[in-house]
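From the pipeline queue, job 12 of 40. The input is one protein chain; the requested action is below.

Action: predict structure.
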Amino acid sequence: MKLEEILNGIGYYEAIGSTNKEITGIQIDSRQVKSGNLFVAVKGTQTDGHAYINKAIDNLATVIVCEEFPETTCPDITYIKVENTENIVGKMATMFYEDPTSKMELVGVTGTNGKTTIATLLYNMFRKFGYKVGLISTVCNYIDGEAIPTEHTTPDPITLNKLLGQMAEKGCKYVFMEVSSHSVAQKRIGGLKFAGGIFTNLTRDHLDYHKTVDNYLKAKKGFFDGLSKNAFALVNLDDKNGLVMTQNTKAKVCTYSLRSICDFKGKVLEDSFEGMSMDINNIEVFVQFIGRFNASNLLAVYGAACLLGKKPEDVLLALSTLRPVSGRFDAIRSPKGYTTIVDYAHTPDALANVLSTIQEVLNGRGNVITVVGAGGNRDKGKRPIMAQEAVRQSDKVIITSDNPRFEEPQDIINDMLSGLSKEDTRKVISITDRKEAIKTACMLAQSGDVVLVAGKGHENYQDIKGIKYHFDDKEVIEEIFANE
């Protein structure tokens, strides 16, 4: 594509050199640059891309997009100066990959909890309806059944547009995508056209990056601020921030709730560890999911599908056939008669939701043993709160290692323990080795009890000192069951 065509969509710029050049690709990582590429020097959170301009030129970049012209320029290189490179990289990538989201219905899901479940269930539902569908999620990206491994909840804008371009080429009519707060703050979704946005909830998370809950909220809200008048904004009325999200949106605002009058209303009629009966807009349906938080997720899925033009009766039929996402309230029955639940809950609110659901279903008929940790090099403030939530709704708690990253596991455990009173600590033990912690919980469990293994869910690794070692909670549990 010609450089001039890419520049059409970015607004004001200054240029040194010819803009009549053929561009073979766009990069923000100088190490990935190939001959004829355009390199965008982005000031990131870790490094400043301007320091790598010469490296990009060494790797045969022919165009440099920057915020300041270098003191020395090369005669064969075109330099484009813009006010903010982070703001325009998404738009440039959208132009280069021929505006893929104009050829599909893209729906973004944002919020602290529930993003993966909602996006994945919508992907599965619309494939059941017979469409070619794309999914961009924390667990994996899919192009109509073909798995594409993922590193981040929302990829960088170039990877994202390339992926969306591939989805458009394969004929995907719908794409469902998790939209992280980081991706909004870092303009990774700049240039994309969304058919709709879904807000799940907002609780404390990612404060290591956003610093305050208010900044975190503004990042989420920024997604809805950017929706067009032709899009829908579907928000959870049961979260106090639901309507805050849509204060400045141009989109059509719709609501879902388990408690209030709204567009998509739900109620849990009966639940068990096999599933629950729900009333959705006055029609009863049995679903293979457990708990109020999943009931809320299913309402979001129902509402979004209806807003995308599907008949309510077809949506409800599809809902009844869907199964939970891997690592999200993943229940496995032990030969000894107790139940284990593997869940990704890694925030205080998510942990509280899962535990309250377990308590509701158990209804005093068994004990709850919780295995939980906290991630290293992340928000330290939530560690004692995680321990408090675990103790509040469990009969026994085993605090263990999660993804310690570059911290010492015992230091993280100590941070968690610091939030507990002397009385609380009577039902807590700490075991640094996660496998041993899970084994101990299973040894303590009796028939009718529930063992919750929280924090890692679908992850099949432990991140220790920069190395990802294979570790899968579900595999460990199945190995224990095989020997019972």
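Job complete. Confidence is low (pLDDT under 50) at residues 205-210.
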